Amino acid sequence: MMVTLHLNGLKVSLEEGATLLDAAKFLGFPIPTLCHMEGLSPYGACRLCVVEIGEGENAKLVSSCTYPVQEGLKIRTASSRVLRARRMILELLLASCPQSRTIQDLASAHGIRIQRFRQEHEDCILCGRCVRMCEEQMMAKAIGFRGRGQARSIGTPFDIKSDVCRLCGGCMYICPACQLRCTYSEPERAVCGGCANLMSPCVEMENFDDLMCYMDPCVACEIHKD
Predict the structure, then answer these.
(1) Is the pLDDT of residue 199 over 60?
(2) Whole-model pTM?
(3) Predicted pLDDT at 83
(4) CATH architecture, domain 129-173
(5) From CA 134, how far away is CA 130, in angstroms rounded?
């Protein structure tokens, strides 16, 4: 069964059961992701893939990787509200794990140049990639989540060495916190910026609340580089 919806003003039809992230990818609209990976089940932990659905006062932010397509739904993937939410999420992630290459690149690409929050230097952001990789791809279930709230962590049951772990290294390979780069501890130098991309200036311009194009690189960004 096909579902028809509007994505950034474009009418699109997708099969029932697809997610908003699938719809955006189908049309080529970029949406950043962190906990989501191809080949792993959607988890919706990081909320970085938020999009705006609905209109006016009823509009709300939802995670596109877990939200299913619905008939007549209206979605905006790059409104000013969405971009503000993504920047805040990235700043919080950067505070938790400021040395992560993955998070630094995402922060740089979204125009974040300074870390405003206290750096915690955590070794895990609880994105769940490793747990899903171990269970769904390696069929081992050697690790999993433990505890709740601030005590939540990832490890083996009872902290005992797992006898089903094959030491494949898949959990480390896909872990964004394991992919370290910089050693800066000063907030003003927390973002490497080596691969920084300028943010689209059209969103900041008066009378515009959405990105005007989705080109990579954006023509307007290239013009405003200097």
Answers:
(1) no
(2) 0.80
(3) 94
(4) 2-Layer Sandwich (3.30)
(5) 6
